[in-house]
Fold:
Amino acid sequence: MASHRMHRVNEDILRELTAILRTVKDPRVTGLVSIVRVDVTNDLSYATVFISSMDGLEAAKQAVVGLKSAAGYMRTALGRALKQLRHVPELRFVADDSIAYSVGLTHTLLELERERKERESAQVAKEESVDESTT
Structure:
């Protein structure tokens, strides 16, 4: 199967599962849960769905447990939404910490930027005081 078709199928499944995820009523699938990536096998028999949460890896693992119990519902809804697929892949959910990692990385970068600005302003103040003392 052509790689551009596989990429399109992955994106279509991701888009539809994201919409279906909003309709899942399992209490374990709460908070800011998101589908990060979908990888479909070449024969379209399995789709690995990577789930992440803003609340961290443990929340993503809880969401995966809830989504595994709702997999039948989600697969049926996916089949209705993607009529171009002859066979709807079996959904496998995997917890991923990429969103929490990205949030942590962003906080680290913001902290470094704040520290850099503080150092620059301290340097400017130091230079101004040296200029005033020399005049």
Observations:
- The chain has a mean pLDDT of 87.
- DSSP finds four helices and three strands in the chain.
- The CA atoms of residues 29 and 75 lie 17 Å apart.
- The beta strands are 33-40, 46-53, 90-95.
